[in-house]
């Protein structure tokens, strides 16, 4: 290849953008509030602002208030089945990354009441827990304002969770409110860009009587 042809080939070559995408989604069922944050980083972990910004559920996210901060978006309504992010790079290529919402609905234990000295089983409507997911039970005693979080880290597929008597003994007799927080990390590919996302689903609160 002549020097002229080599120079032309180098001039026409486009530099490869080495980016990574990171996002977070939280849905609070009590408030029907969906919140999203996202950041696109270059190879040096510096924030990148793609042409047209970042999109969430097809809507343009708010631009970072300060340099290096993430894009944000908030809306009220139903959670939907998935949280979809997207953007267009400087070469005009479309990128997309989706997170499953995985709601936990109609959760409960066996026939009421609960007993602080007996085992019981938590069941729910929705997808089972999968390896790597976390489920947190946030208990609050309505009379004493005592809080008692119980965190479950799933190492297998679980459609229900059995709480032994020793765990139930952490709840003193009385009226307790409970909501669940389901947390999942997802790693994948945003049309050629490595992507990592975290989704959290906060259920509605329910009241349980502990004897």
| Count of helical regions | 2
Care to count the β-strands? 15
What helical percentage do the residues reach? under 10%
Overall form: elongated
Mean pLDDT metric: 89
Q: In terms of structural class, how would the helical and strand content be classed? A: mainly beta
Provide the β-strand percentage band.
over 45%
Helix and strand element order: HEEEEEEEEEEEEHEEE
Major beta sheet summary: 8 strands, mixed
Our Rg estimate from Cα atoms comes to: 23 Å
Terminal CA distance reads 86 Å
**Poorly predicted regions:** 1-15
Short description:
The protein is mainly beta and 211 residues long.
Overview of the molecule:
The chain is built from two helices and 15 strands. The protein is elongated and about 65 Å long. The N terminus is likely disordered. A hairpin with a 4-residue loop joins strand 1 and strand 2. The strands form three sheets. Strands 1, 2, 5, 10, 11, 13, 14 and 15 form an eight-stranded mixed β-sheet that branches. It has a four-stranded antiparallel β-sheet with strand order 4-3-6-7, with no helix packed on it. The chain has 211 residues and is mainly β. The termini are far apart. The longest helix is centred in the first third of the chain and has 10 residues.
């Amino acid at each position: 290849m002549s020097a002229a042809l080599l120079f032309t080939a180098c001039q026409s070559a486009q530099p490869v953008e080495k980016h990574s995408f990171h996002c977070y989604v939280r849905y609070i069922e009590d408030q029907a509030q969906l919140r999203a944050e996202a950041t696109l980083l270059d190879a040096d972990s510096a924030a990148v602002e793609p042409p047209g910004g970042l999109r969430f559920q097809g809507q343009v996210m708010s631009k970072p208030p300060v340099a290096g901060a993430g894009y944000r978006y908030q809306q009220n309504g139903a959670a939907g089945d998935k949280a979809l992010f997207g953007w267009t790079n400087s070469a005009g290529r479309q990128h997309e990354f989706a997170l499953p919402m995985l709601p936990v609905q109609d959760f409960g234990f066996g026939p009421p009441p609960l007993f602080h000295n007996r085992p019981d089983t938590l069941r729910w409507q929705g997808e089972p827990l999968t390896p790597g997911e976390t489920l947190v039970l946030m208990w609050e005693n309505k009379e004493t304002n005592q809080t008692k979080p119980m965190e479950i880290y799933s190492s297998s597929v679980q459609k229900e969770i059995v709480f032994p008597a020793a765990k139930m003994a952490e709840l003193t007799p009385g009226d307790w409110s409970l909501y669940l927080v389901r947390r999942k990390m997802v790693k994948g590919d945003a049309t050629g860009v490595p992507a990592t996302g975290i989704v959290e689903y906060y259920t509605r609160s329910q009241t349980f009587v502990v004897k």
